[in-house]
From TrEMBL:
One of its GO terms (cellular component) is membrane. This is Tryptophan-rich sensory protein. Belongs to the TspO/BZRP family. Keywords: Membrane, Transmembrane, Transmembrane helix. It is found in: Membrane. Its main location: membrane.
Length: 281
């Protein structure tokens, strides 16, 4: 069976385009609901305040959540971009569109579950969302972006999305464990805080190295970790140790991405020069 040409949109392409647009609008509706603008309870106040900045040692400070505005703008931008006739049959949209739609739906479901006070369900949903975003990130590397619109609406948006949800998953799971009375097997909360931050930073550093220095995931992860540090310094429960560890982890994640990016560029440059010289002789 032959693969549909990028020059020939299929009915499935049209269905995907419209469905992804609806998913973008659903995500935007969820954002307004989660902010309290449509009468719902703001996420930080829902579920008995389990996700508030002062609920656990791993909760980011309030301003951290402003990154959602950038992510939602990117998701809506992608939904509009992929709807254009010129984008209908592109292989990149065929490869990623349905997965991006799944992330939009899961995002809305997560907000609804928190609004309803189903904290345990929200943990399952955000874990699946993280898995979907990892799949998107891996698949996105299979086909390079075409131009700056691709870079902004797909690579940058989904990278920020992945990096932030990585931190949000840590905060969400911690909030749920605290809510159900988990005592950490008797270990002090600060010890658990340090372990979780180190594990999260290690995974983020590994992602930066594997992706050859993709900056968007590292920026979003570092953003979340830094705001965890701020919360522990200026809010309750306070912990200078957890705060310092979060700040250090944020710096390491960014440094790893920058080093990987610079290393990859320097590694490619001799090959490019050699190719140019070879082609000229």
């Amino acid at each position: 069976m032959s693969t549909p040409s990028e020059n020939t949109p299929t009915p499935a392409d049209r269905v995907r385009q419209v469905t992804v647009l609806l998913g973008g609008l659903l995500a935007l509706f969820g954002a307004f609901l989660g902010s309290g603008a449509l009468g719902g309870t703001p996420v930080q106040d829902a579920a008995g305040g389990a996700l508030a900045a002062d609920a656990t040692l791993l909760a980011p400070y309030g301003p951290a959540f402003s990154i959602w505005s950038v992510i939602y703008a990117g998701l809506l931008g992608y939904a509009i971009w992929q709807l254009l006739p010129s984008q209908a049959a592109r292989l990149r949209h065929r490869l990623l569109g349905w997965w991006i739609l799944a992330s939009q739906v899961l995002n809305a479901l997560w907000i609804l579950s928190v609004q309803a006070g189903f904290l345990g369900a929200s943990v399952v949903i955000i874990a699946v969302l993280l898995l979907v975003l990892i799949i998107v990130f891996v698949r996105m590397r299979q086909l390079d972006a075409r131009g700056w619109v691709d870079m902004l609406t797909m690579d940058a948006t989904m990278g920020l999305y992945l990096g932030w949800v990585t931190v949000a998953t840590i905060a969400n799971i911690t909030a749920w464990l605290v809510a159900i009375g988990f005592d950490g097997f008797g270990w002090p909360p600060e010890v658990w805080g340090l372990i979780v931050i180190v594990v999260g930073a290690t995974i983020s550093v590994a992602t930066a190295l594997w992706s050859r220095g993709r900056l968007a995931p590292a920026i979003a992860t570092a953003w979340g970790l830094a705001w965890i540090g701020v919360a522990r310094v200026i809010d309750e429960p306070s912990s200078a140790l957890v705060g310092a560890t979060a700040f250090t982890a944020a710096a390491l994640v960014l440094a790893a991405a920058l080093i990987a990016r610079l290393t990859d560029r320097s590694r490619r440059r001799p090959e490019t020069v050699e190719a140019l010289v070879g082609g000229a002789t």
